[in-house]
């Protein structure tokens, strides 16, 4: 018998309304995955009580939970779902035929949760599982010149359940958004064409609460954080001196402030497909410059993180797509 292929399967997602009650995938919200690592995780206690010498004589199951990561190219419908559940609030404007697409303005609120259905060799099916109560612990958006934007979601939930039959996948028809799709990259309020790579990581930093149950009875959000990395072509000392010397010539006692924004889109009118990632307030932690023995250009591998200032959100994400209802 030949082995099962990694590409012969599906990942579908659906928003849950009630913790502990899994749902079927939503039509159109099936991920054209690049990778997945969904798993049932079991904690065990090895039985090493006295009286039996040097041997483990038993094992006791402690906790059980579901988790793992899924990744894919940034197609706006599916990405919007993961981003909405990660942040927790979706201000939705419906499509206006011939004028504008569906618009989702995603901002921090109470994170939502989902069921993730995975089918492996679904025609048979070899196995179909629904992982329930899955929260987006980390959402990472990455871009690199000449490539599609990508996202990955690190998920944590309560448990999986084996289903009797597979769901027929339905996929969104949108192409991925590319790094070069009419982009505007904005650093500290000024547009730049010198960024060749970026990564934004949003983290909910969840705690699992088990209480008197074997699976988590509650998933508690803690500090919301946004981490930023980007590669900047080194043309002059402006950014370097701002980060390390307060734009002067000597070290200062503050961390430099700034902002970072990525806007990329394609299409027109109600066919616009776009993602807008806006961190209004960042702290620049590093922007090193180094020499090497080859003749390549100097690139600054810059590091920063988002901070909340006043009434502004820690991060705002606007997605324009074809998913014509709110995610939350």
* Computed Rg: 23 Å
Give the number of domains. Answer: 1
Q: Write the H/E string, N to C.
A: EEEEEHEEEEEEEEEEEEHEEEE
Structural class: mainly beta
Amount of beta strand: over 45%
Note the overall shape: globular
Query: What's the rounded overall pLDDT mean?
Result: 95
Distance between the termini: 44 Å
Number of strands: 21
Low-confidence stretches: none
**Helix run count:** 2
Largest sheet: 19 strands, antiparallel
Approximate helicity band: under 10%
Write up what this structure looks like.
This protein is mostly beta strands and 328 residues long. It has one domain. The protein has helices at 76-87, 238-245; strands spanning 9-15, 30-31, 33-36, 39-47, 58-73, 88-93, 102-108, 114-120, 127-144, 150-157, 159-162, 184-187, 190-192, 195-203, 207-209, 218-220, 225-233, 256-266, 273-286, 299-306, 316-321. The protein has 2 helices and 21 strands. The strands form 2 sheets. The chain has a 19-stranded antiparallel β-sheet that branches. It has a two-stranded antiparallel sheet with strand order 15-16.
């Amino acid at each position: 018998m030949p082995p099962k292929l990694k590409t012969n399967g599906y990942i579908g997602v659906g928003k849950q309304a009630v913790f502990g009650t899994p749902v079927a995938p939503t039509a159109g919200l099936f991920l054209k995955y690049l990778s997945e690592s969904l798993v049932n995780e079991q904690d065990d206690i090895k039985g090493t009580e006295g009286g039996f010498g040097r041997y483990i004589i038993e094992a006791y199951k402690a906790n059980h939970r579901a988790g793992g990561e899924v990744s894919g190219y940034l197609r706006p419908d599916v990405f919007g779902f993961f981003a909405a559940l990660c942040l927790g609030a979706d201000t939705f404007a419906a499509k206006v035929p011939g004028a504008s697409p569906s618009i989702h303005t995603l901002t921090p609120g109470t994170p939502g949760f989902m069921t993730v259905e995975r089918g492996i060799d679904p025609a048979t099916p070899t196995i179909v599982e629904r992982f329930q109560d899955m929260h987006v612990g980390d959402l990472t958006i990455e871009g690199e010149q000449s490539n599609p934007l990508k996202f990955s979601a690190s998920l944590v939930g309560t448990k999986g359940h084996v289903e009797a039959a597979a769901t027929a996948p339905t996929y969104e028809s949108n192409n991925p958004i590319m790094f070069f799709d009419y982009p505007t990259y904005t650093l500290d309020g000024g547009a730049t064409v010198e960024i060749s790579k970026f990564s934004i990581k949003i983290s909910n930093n969840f705690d699992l609460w088990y209480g008197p149950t074997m699976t988590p009875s509650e998933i508690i959000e803690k500090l919301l954080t946004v981490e930023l990395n980007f590669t900047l072509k080194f043309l002059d000392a402006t950014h370097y001196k701002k980060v390390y010397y307060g734009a002067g010539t000597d070290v200062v006692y503050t961390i430099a402030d700034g902002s970072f924004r990525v806007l990329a889109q394609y299409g027109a009118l109600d066919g616009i497909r776009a993602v807008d990632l806006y961190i209004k307030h960042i702290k620049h932690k590093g922007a090193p410059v180094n020499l090497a023995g080859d003749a390549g250009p100097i690139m600054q591998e810059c590091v920063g993180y988002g901070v909340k200032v006043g009434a502004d959100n820690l991060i705002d994400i606007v997605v324009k797509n074809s998913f014509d209802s709110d995610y939350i």
